[in-house]
Amino acid sequence: MQGWIEGFQESIDLIEQNLTEDLDIEVIAGKSALSPFYFQRIFGALCGVTVGEYIRARRMTLAAQELSRKDVKVIDVAIKYGYDSPDSFSKAFQKFHGITPLQAKEPGAPLRSFAPLHIKITMEGGTMLDYRIVEKASFTIVGVKRPFNSDTSYQEVPKFWDEWLAQGEKRPIMGTFGGCLDMDGKNFDYWIADLYFPWEDIPEGCETREIPGGLWAQFPCTMDNLQDVNTKIWSEWLPSLQGYSLAGDYDFEVYLPPKEGSKDMTVYIWIPIKKD
Length: 276
Description:
The protein has nine helices and nine strands. By secondary structure, the chain is of the alpha+beta class. The chain has two domains: 2-104, Orthogonal Bundle (Arc Repressor Mutant, subunit A); 132-275, Regulatory factor, effector binding domain (Multidrug-efflux Transporter 1 Regulator Bmrr, Chain A). It has helices at residues 2-17, 25-30, 36-47, 51-69, 74-80, 86-97, 101-104, 153-165, 226-240, and strands at 132-136, 139-149, 177-184, 187-195, 207-211, 214-221, 244-246, 251-256, 266-275. Helices cover 38% and strands 24% of the residues. The model has no long low-confidence stretch (mean pLDDT 86). The N and C termini lie close together (12 Å).
């Protein structure tokens, strides 16, 4: 998927070329021929930061360089890098650099720098990642959902699960699925859900959603290594994938009861794909 990797780098280059402009995630992701949702998932796995964090870090880096070497007003630099007021700029600047913008203008001020990203896929030793490709008919889920933003979802989604688990036996569903659906730029709905069958009643506070049939790549994992497997999917498996591409702006974690003789829950990550 060398073309895909080059397209991803073009997306990063577009960000770099427009750090003083309004940046549209739809346009950024379009450079890599990915949906905004998948672009952000892959970006986080490859780069270790979210797209929003990267943009803020790069803007703060360039802003500090300008303040340290030029006789410029703080308000002018703030506006240039997308801040409406000196106060909001100063708070963001101090959080990143540990000093105020005015202090950054002093000779010898300690500053931080976040370098531009360059994507390189290298061989560092083989790692085993088990998966299988299966075709599934459409199915319907029933559950509860909550809107999230990709910049904060890694911190906020676990809180959603904690709140749901805290209900104990009052929970209306078991929580077989954890699904990201309805991606819109940085925003998406996260579902905690079960399979729904038409002869069943819909529990109070829940709703249903049909998931299209098609091909799925299924990755077995455990609760302990779920995040590690997820990272490998986006940073290792996807770049080497041939003959298939991502399909649909949704994916699932699947939590099944322990198999006979085991105490550990069976966990899968499901990624929708299609043949090229």
